[in-house]
Amino acid sequence: xxxxxxxxxxxxxxxxxxxxxxxxxxxxxxxxxxxxxxxxxxxxxxxxxxxxxxxxxxxxxxxxxxxxxxxxxxxxxxxxxxxxxxxxxxxxxxxxxx
Length: 98
Known about the structure:
This protein is an alpha+beta fold. About 35% of the residues lie in helices and about 35% in strands. It contains three helices and four strands. The chain has helices at about 15-30, 60-70, 70-75; strands at about 5-10, 35-45, 50-55, 85-95. Strand 2 and strand 3 (about 50-55) form a beta hairpin. The longest helix is centred in the N-terminal third of the chain and has 16 residues, at about 15-30. The two termini are about 15 Å apart. The model has no long low-confidence stretch (mean pLDDT about 95).
C-alpha cells in the first residue's frame, strides 16, 4: 500500500528564503530515493511563511528509509526544524493510486 504524507511548515520570520532553499534541495534528493513516488513542496501565496509538502512513497519501508536518511537528517532535522515556528504532519493510505 502506498502512503501519502502531508506536511505544513510555518517559518519563523526572516527564515522563509532559507526554508525555500532547503525544500528545493530536498526535492531533488528525495525524488532520487528508491520508493519515492512524489515529493512536491509548495509555498503559500497568501502567507509566504507557510510551506506545504506533499509526498508519496511506495510503502512504509520506503518512507522509513527516507526519514532515516542522511539528507533528511542534515537538511530537515539539523537545520530546517530550528527555523520553524511549528510543523504539522499527517500520514494517509492512498486509496486509489493513479
